[in-house]
Amino acid sequence: MKKVSVIIPVYNAENYVAYTLQSLLDQTYKNFEAIIIDDGSPDNSIELCKSFLDPRIKIVQQANRGLPGARNTGIRHATGDYLSFLDADDLWLPNKLEKHVEHLNNSPEVGISFSYSAFIDGEGNYTGMYQIPRKICDITPPYVLCRNPVSNGSCAVIRRETFEDIKFQDNLYGLEEDFYFDESFRQAEDLECWTRIAAHTDWKLEGIPEVLTLYRVNSGGLSANALNQLQALERVIDKSCKSAPEVLGPYKSLATAYCMRYVARRAVTLRDGSLAVDMVNQAMKTDWRILAEEPQRTVLTLFAAYLLKVTPEPLYKRVEALAFKATSANQSRKIPIQNRTAI
C-alpha cells in the first residue's frame, strides 16, 4: 500500500487549521503521514495542531521562509511514495486521497494527479462556484503555462519521482539543500513548478473529473494585490519561456494575455471597473488568440468589465446575481451527480 506524505504549511491559520487537519484525518485512505511545517507562525496555529494526538502527525519548525520554502522543507522530510500539499485553510473531501492513489497506481506515466475544486467562503460554506479545468488529459507544457489546470496548491497529489526529476541544489540559508519549488517566487510558485515539470520531464499531468478539494476564497482583497499577482505570473512566464524556448517561447504572449484576463476577472470581483477594463483591453491587445481559444469566457470578461464601469451599482448587483446563478448552474452540470451530492 502506497504511503502519502501530506505537507501542510502553517502560518497565521488559527481560524482554519483545525478544520483542515480534521478533513485530513477523516480520509478513507489511512496510509499517510501529515508533515506540518510551522513557518514561524506567530499566532496560536501550532498549539491547535499539537492538540491532535494522531501519531501520523509530525510538526517541523523553521524560521519564516514563505509558502514555497515551507513546501520544500516538507518534501525533504517526506517519506511517502506520493506527496501532496494541503494549505492550512483548505479542506479535502473524505475520499480525496483514495481517488488520487488509485489514479496514480493505475497510471504509471502520470506524475501529477489533480482534481476539480469547489469554492468555500471564510465560514466554510459552499459558494456555488467551482474550479473546473477545460482539459484534464492530453495536457501539453504550453497549456500548463497558459491555463494552469492544477488550479490551486491543495489540489494535486504528486509522485515522489516527479520531484526528484526537477530538484536542484542551492545555498540560500547557509546550508546546501535540495530545492523543488523556486523560493524566489512568493506568488505563483505552483505554476512555476508545474510548468517546469511539464516542460522538462516526461511525466504527465492528468485530472480526476470530480470535486475533491474545497478551496477557501477570501472575500476581501485589494486591486493592488491583483496587480502584484500579475507581476509574479509575468515573472513565471518569463523564466519558463527562457528555460524552454522551443517548447514555451511561442506561447509567451498568449500566456501573458491569459494572465491579464485573469486579473481583469479578479478586478471585476473586487468591483474595480477601471482596472478590469484596462486589463481585459491589454489582454486582447497582447494576444488575440485568447478570443479564438476561449471566445465565451473572453467576451463575458469584456462585457462584465465594461458593465461594471458604466452601470449604477444597484443595477450591476442584480445583473451580477443573475450571472452568478447561471454560471453556478452551468458548472454544476459538469460534475458527476454522485459527486455533487457528496459536496
Features:
343 residues; 11 strands; Spore Coat Polysaccharide Biosynthesis Protein SpsA, Chain A; alpha/beta
Describe the structure.
The chain has helices spanning 17-25, 45-50, 66-77, 96-106, 141-147, 160-164, 189-200, 223-243, 245-248, 252-269, 273-286, 289-293, 295-310, 313-332, 337-342; strands at residues 4-10, 32-39, 57-62, 82-85, 91-92, 110-120, 126-131, 157-159, 168-170, 177-179, 204-216. The longest helix is centred in the last third of the chain and has 21 residues, at 223-243. The strands form two sheets. Strands 1, 2, 3, 4, 5, 6, 7, 8 and 11 form a nine-stranded mixed β-sheet that branches. A two-stranded antiparallel sheet has the order 9-10. The mean pLDDT is 95. The radius of gyration is 20 Å and the shape is globular. The chain contains 15 helices and eleven strands. The protein has two domains: 4-219, Spore Coat Polysaccharide Biosynthesis Protein SpsA, Chain A, CATH 3.90.550; 223-332, no CATH class. By secondary structure, it is an alpha/beta fold.
Draw up the topology in text.
Elements: E1 4-10, H1 17-25, E2 32-39, H2 45-50, E3 57-62, H3 66-77, E4 82-85, E5 91-92, H4 96-106, E6 110-120, E7 126-131, H5 141-147, E8 157-159, H6 160-164, E9 168-170, E10 177-179, H7 189-200, E11 204-216, H8 223-243, H9 245-248, H10 252-269, H11 273-286, H12 289-293, H13 295-310, H14 313-332, H15 337-342
Parallel strand pairs: 1-2, 1-4, 2-3, 6-11
Antiparallel strand pairs: 4-8, 5-11, 6-7, 6-8, 9-10
Helix pairs in contact: 5-7, 5-10, 7-8, 8-10, 10-11, 10-13, 11-13
